Amino acid sequence: MTLYAFSGAIEQGLVYGLMALGVYITFRILDFPDLTVDGSLPLGAAVSSVLITKGLNPYLSLAPAMVAGFLAGAITGLLTTKLKILHLLASILTMTALYSVNIRIMGRPNTSLLGKSTVFDPLRALELPPFFISTVFFTALLLGVVLILIWLSRTEYGQSLIATGDNPNMITSLGVNTHFTIITGVGLSNALVALSGALIAQNQGTADVGMGVGTIVAGLASIVVGETIFSRRTVSLAIISVVFGSIIYRLAIALALSLKIKGFSFKPSDLNLITASLVVLALVLPRIKTAIKNKKKIRGKA
Questions:
Q1: Which of 41, 104, 283, 291 is most buried per CB count within 10 Å?
Q2: Which domain holds residue 52?
Q3: Percentage of the residues of the chain whose pLDDT score is greater than 90
């Protein structure tokens, strides 16, 4: 793996870490399989990019992008809680609708930001290396988001989110409105995903309607890899492990794409295959380890 590929993987791991944290809220905390993220990531990119081309400050463009993502997630929550549509189907419906919405927002399948101001411009004025600029920015932002999520998990609202995912019947009997927590929780998740999409668009210099394909799979891979290698004993540790999982996942992808074995090498089009393989491996490894430990215990007793 070249230094360029390594630095690029770290950069992608950080910015997509925001997306992974969003997926973690629905997938782990709420136990809500949400495919809306495949549409909310390009939604955030589309909103931010269009506003920047209209002359809005790139930092200010992040807020409307997050609001748009929150609304997309809230719609999925409403379809599930109020209209009683299965959560998986509700998220697919929202994701499908967002494809048309994103094109409507941009007026075309993609929007270029070349020559436009971005959130990285103030750091570029310091004449720092390009990799260092994006890495420092994403690290600082991700650290802030992680601290906010850890704090939120310890609040009454955060505890109601966790309880809604663990045992909705029990928390309902205690007077908590689970419909509200699901709607706002899915909304918060997609707000983070939309923020990630807005930053990816500004970093890459373009927003594309198809940039969200495979987002849910990448998010799940980051979560599973992080939990497999690190810990999920507490919510705080799980949140931190998701971030490291995102980085390790991107490094694994970069390593796989750089491998060449007897004339065989992976191509960028094999990305989804590599991702699926990593997720399967990460899911199976803990079971294999447990089986090996149990066999050793049985042999020890014998």
A1: 41
A2: 3-301
A3: 53
